[in-house]
Amino acid sequence: MTHWTETDIPNLTGKTAVVTGANSGLGYHTARALAAAGAQVIMACRSESKATQAMDALRGEVDDASIEFAPLDLASLESVRTFASGLENRPIDLLINNAGVMAVPYSKTADGFEMQFGTNHLGHFALTGLLLDQIRDGGRIVSLASMAHRWTPAINFDDLAWEQRRYKRWQAYGDSKLANLTFMFELSRRMIAARRNIIVAGAHPGYASTNLQFVAAAQRKSMIERLVMTIGNAVIGQPAKMGALPSLYAATASHVTSGDYIGPDGLQQMRGHPEKVGCRKQARDSVIGERLWSVSEQLTDVRYLSD
């Protein structure tokens, strides 16, 4: 059996890709591979200093890489709108909604949303809607989900801000990843109904060893959590370069169709090469998808042009 790798990415010369959270981990390797294939890559990152370091490293790996930085903080709708306005009228071929936070202590975004749902889902919902009219015919939108979408009973639409319940940070992370996947399927249905020639797909990296695992430990000042994550990354995790393959596959493989969900082909989807995988039934539920869409529009005040 032949496994799909970066070498299978087609020539992307003349294509423009936006990658959120491109300064480290999966986002960095996604941006690097797309740039190596000839794409113009817009690295959408919160920190300019970290983005600059990442771009220097990327240029050291890819000769003549066509890359640029644009500031984006997904925890601020003002930042999302500013980012989108900076790209106004600029054609986009690939939008990779990669950035996210994981299992952080309770806090709120600049707009008062629970941090994980607000950053991982609502920020990307708003960004995608604001850029949708600029995505070229034949373009693609890829939403990064996670195995964690199976970890939550359901999205609690009556308490999205976790103000009526004791906060469970891992469940909240699962909520946000379930929302990412539910949004992907709903957007796919809407693009098909609107007869837009845009492929909307999802991907998850399995267990990839990145810095994402250590952010919450640092915020909580927990040496035990850091130790657990270190062991998990070493024993279970696959390299971030491998973890980025499902996103790259979803963004570039020729036989991907709208609504596909791509993950690793190994045991329990933890590691391996990309292939089409299944997900929990709830993520594909159109009634839940429509409700999430309506709530997201209300909270972000972003209406999609296809509506």
Question: Tags for this entry?
Answer:
eight-stranded mixed sheet, two-stranded parallel ribbon, 307 residues, globular, 10 helices, single chain, alpha/beta
Structural summary, described in words:
- It is a single chain.
- With 307 residues, the chain is of the alpha/beta class.
- It is 41% helix and 16% strand.
- The chain is built from 10 helices and 10 strands.
- The chain has an 8-stranded mixed β-sheet, sandwiched between helices. A two-stranded parallel sheet has the order 7-8.
- Helix 3 (77-86) packs parallel to helix 4 (115-131), helix 4 (115-131) crosses helix 10 (286-300) and helix 6 (212-220) packs antiparallel against helix 7.
- Mean pLDDT is 91; it is low at 213-218, 224-229 and 231-235.
Concise summary:
41% of the residues lie in helices and 16% in strands. By secondary structure, the chain is α/β, with parallel strands linked by helices.
* First and last CA, distance: 43 Å
Low-confidence stretches: 213-218, 224-229, 231-235
Instruction: Write down the overall mean pLDDT.
Output: 91
Structural class from helices and strands? alpha/beta
Helical stretch tally: 10
Beta-strand residue fraction: 15-25%
Oligomeric description of these chains: single chain
Helix content: 40-55%
Shape: globular
> What is the string of SSEs from the N terminus onward?
EHEHEHEHEHEEHHEHHEEH
Rounded to the nearest angstrom, the radius of gyration is: 18 Å
Number of strands: 10
Strands in their spatial order, largest beta sheet: 3-2-1-4-5-6-9-10
Largest sheet at a glance?
Answer: 8 strands, mixed
